[in-house]
Give the backbone structure.
Amino acid sequence: MAEIVNLNKLRKARARQQAAAQAAANRVSHGRTKAEKARDAAEQAQRRALLDGAKREAEN
């Protein structure tokens, strides 16, 4: 004999599973800690300062 399945519950469970998978993917791609963001900003500022320091004066 076949097991009785509530299709509504099955559909909702599948939707929750897909939403959880999407959330996990978003956390990987967008989730960075405050320390990581600060480190990246400091590195970018350091690179910008090094580049600005190497610029020549405009000759007019």
Helices lie at 7-30, 34-53. Residues 19 and 25 are 10 Å apart (CA to CA).
